[in-house]
């Protein structure tokens, strides 16, 4: 209990929560961080390292789809804590992958609004325009299933812009989804 109180005092009102047992080595790392050139790391750097370590631990040792949202939250928090870090692009990619898995998990649970939210965020973190377009297309489809036509149109139009020049077949499918939205909105002539 003393370790837990010390841990809470160090993090204060941090919005992200690490799922660590008081017996886990990562917990001890937080309380007794390694010395770098005789100095203790600054709290933001330490938080960044711990978030990455916690996400990697959860992902590699448990790898459970039920924890996809938690793993994604840790990677996203780590990236946001240090977007200029040396390995920020790798962490950003891991965050995007974890958010994509969280979206797939949400879809398996028929939670379309959450699926849309996770896939949209994954797209924001994806560097490759084609990959971002594919994720926005999937998010748009989730928005359709969630009965959110305004969001669906926004996502699908963004996806179409990114995909149109590279993948004609996928662009045609996105165009068909947009036509379906026109039809559902009562504009069959636009469809």
Radius of gyration: 20 Å
Question: Which regions are unreliable across 5 or more consecutive residues at pLDDT < 50?
Answer: 13-23
Query: What are the secondary-structure elements, in order, as H or E?
Result: HHHHHHHHH
Largest sheet properties: none
Overall 3D shape? elongated
Query: How many helices in DSSP terms?
Result: 9
Q: What portion of residues belong to β-strands?
A: under 5%
Number of strands: 0
Helix content: over 70%
**SS-derived structural category:** mainly alpha
How far is the N terminus from the C terminus? 63 Å
**Nearest-integer average pLDDT:** 79
Concise overview:
It contains nine helices and no strands. With 191 residues, the protein is mainly alpha-helical. The termini are far apart.
What would you note in describing this structure?
The chain is mainly alpha-helical and 191 residues long. 70% of the residues lie in helices and 0% in strands. The protein has helices at residues 2-11, 25-31, 43-62, 68-81, 88-108, 112-124, 129-145, 149-163, 168-184. Helix 5 packs antiparallel against helix 6 (112-124). It is elongated, with a radius of gyration of 20 Å. Residues 13-23 have low confidence and may be disordered.
What is the fold's blueprint, element by element?
Elements: H1 2-11, H2 25-31, H3 43-62, H4 68-81, H5 88-108, H6 112-124, H7 129-145, H8 149-163, H9 168-184
Helix pairs in contact: 1-2, 3-4, 4-5, 5-6, 6-7, 7-8, 7-9, 8-9
């Amino acid at each position: 209990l003393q370790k837990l109180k010390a841990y809470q005092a160090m993090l204060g009102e941090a919005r992200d929560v690490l799922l660590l047992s008081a017996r886990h080595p990562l917990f001890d790392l937080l309380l007794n961080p390694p010395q770098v050139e005789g100095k203790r790391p600054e709290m933001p750097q330490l938080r960044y390292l711990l978030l990455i370590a916690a996400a990697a631990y959860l992902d590699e040792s448990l790898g459970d789809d039920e924890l996809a949202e938690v793993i994604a939250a840790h990677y996203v928090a780590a990236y946001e804590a240090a977007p200029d870090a040396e390995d920020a692009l790798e962490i950003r990619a891991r965050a995007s992958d974890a958010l994509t898995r969280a979206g797939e998990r949400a879809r398996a649970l028929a939670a379309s609004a959450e699926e849309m939210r996770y896939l949209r965020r994954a797209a924001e973190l994806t560097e490759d325009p084609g990959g971002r377009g594919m994720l926005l297309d999937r998010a748009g489809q989730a928005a359709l299933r969630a009965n959110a036509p305004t969001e669906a149109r926004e996502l699908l139009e963004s996806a179409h812009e990114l995909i149109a020049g590279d993948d004609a077949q996928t662009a045609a499918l996105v165009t068909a989804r947009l036509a379906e939205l026109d039809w559902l909105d009562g504009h069959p002539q636009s469809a």
